[in-house]
Amino acid sequence: MKMALRACLRTKPGLTALLSQLSCSGHAAARRAPALVAQRSSSSTSQKIKVDFDQSSGVAVMHMQSPPVNSLSLEFLTDVCIALEKLEMDKSCRGLVVTSSQPKVFSAGLDILDMYGKSPEHCAEFWKAVQEMWLKFYGSNMITIAAVNGSSPAGGCLLSMTCDYRIMADNPRYSIGLNETKLGIVAPFWFKDTMVNTVGHRATEMALQLGLLYSPAEALKIGLVDQLVHEDQVLTTATETMTKWLAIPGILNISYTCHFFHLWCCNLVCTICSCVCQVIAAKKIHLSQDF
Ligand SMILES: CCCCC/C=C\C/C=C\C=C\CC(=O)SCCNC(=O)CCNC(=O)[C@H](O)C(C)(C)COP(=O)(O)OP(=O)(O)OC[C@H]1O[C@@H](n2cnc3c(N)ncnc32)[C@H](O)[C@@H]1OP(=O)(O)O
C-alpha cells in the first residue's frame, strides 16, 4: 500500500491533488518552512522530534520525544509532518528509521486529551493532521523502518504499519495492535485497510472486532511485525536492515509499486461503493421512520 501511494504520488497528478486535499498537506509547511540539510551528518530538533541524519549513508533516524508516551497530539503530529517534509525534500536522504526516546513506549496512539472537549475546528485540524501523518509515511519516497522499542497501541500501531518494515523489542511486557474497539470506538476504514495490507483480511477481522493487543511474539506470528530483537538491539538492527533495503535498485521498488497501486485502487473503489450504500441505507431508514 505504501508503495502504491508512492507510485501514484510520482505518476498520477490527479490523484496527488486528491490526496493532498484529503490530507490538507500544506498545513504543516505553512507553519514552518522546511530547511535543507547541508552538513555531512546533522541533527535537527523540535521540542518533540529529534532527527539525526547521516549523509554518508543517506539514513535519518527520527526520535519521538514527547513525554510521557509520545501520544499523537496536534502539535506532535505537526512536528512529525514537518520533519518528514524536510527529509523528503532532501534527495540525499533515502532511508528513515522512526523510533522512540521514551522508555517502554513507542507511541500511545492518538492523544486522547486532544480529542476530548475541543472545538469542532480543533477536531477538524487534529483529524487532518492524523491523515497527513498517515499519507506522508505511506507515500514517502524513502524506505521507512519502524524501530518499535516499546508498546504501540492504536494510532501508534498505525504509525508503525505505514512503514516498510517493523522491528520490535522482544519484551513480553510490550504490546501492539489496533485496540480501538476496547475503547468503545470504531477504527476508521483506512486504519483497517492499513492493517489488512499488513496482516491480511482474517487477522484484521479478529484484531479489530476484538480490539486485540498482541505481545511481540504474537505480533510476529501474524506478521504485524517483521522481526523481534533484544531491546538493546532495536535501533542498530534497524539501521543494519536499512542497508539491505537501500541496496535494492529503486526501479524495482517502482515496479512493485505498480502492482500494489492496482490493489489499492480496487480497495478505494470498494470503499466508496460501500459508503454510498451506507448513505442510501441510512436515508431509507430515515424515510421509513418519517412515515
Ligand atoms: C478529534 C476528532 C477525532 C475524531 C475521531 C473519530 C474516530 C477516531 C477513532 C479511533 C481512533 C483511535 C486511535 C487512537 O489512537 S485512540 C488512543 C488509544 N490509545 C490507547 O489506548 C493507549 C492508552 N495508553 C496505554 O495503554 C498506556 O499508557 C501505555 C501502554 C502506552 C503506556 O503505559 P505506561 O504504564 O508506561 O504509562 P501510563 O501510566 O499508562 O501512562 C502515562 C501517562 O500517559 C498518559 N497517556 C497514556 N496514553 C495516552 C494517550 N493515548 N493520550 C493521552 N495521554 C495518554 C496517561 O494518562 C498517563 O498520564 P498521567 O496519569 O501520568 O498524567
UniProtKB/TrEMBL annotation:
It is found in: Mitochondrion matrix. InterPro entries: ClpP/crotonase-like_dom_sf, Enoyl-CoA_hyd/isom_CS, Enoyl-CoA_hydra/iso. GO terms for molecular function: delta(3)-delta(2)-enoyl-CoA isomerase activity. GO terms for biological process: fatty acid beta-oxidation. Pathway: Lipid metabolism; fatty acid beta-oxidation. SUPFAM superfamilies: ClpP/crotonase. GO terms for cellular component: mitochondrial matrix. CDD domains: crotonase-like. PROSITE patterns: ENOYL_COA_HYDRATASE (PS00166). It is an enzyme of class 5 (isomerase). Pfam families: ECH_1. Its EC number is 5.3.3.8. Keywords: Acetylation, Fatty acid metabolism, Isomerase, Lipid metabolism, Mitochondrion, Transit peptide. Coiled coil: none annotated. Belongs to the enoyl-CoA hydratase/isomerase family. Homotrimer. Key enzyme of fatty acid beta-oxidation. Able to isomerize both 3-cis (3Z) and 3-trans (3E) double bonds into the 2-trans (2E) form in a range of enoyl-CoA species, with a preference for (3Z)-enoyl-CoAs over (3E)-enoyl-CoAs. The catalytic efficiency of this enzyme is not affected by the fatty acyl chain length. This is Enoyl-CoA delta isomerase 1, mitochondrial. It comes from Astatotilapia calliptera.
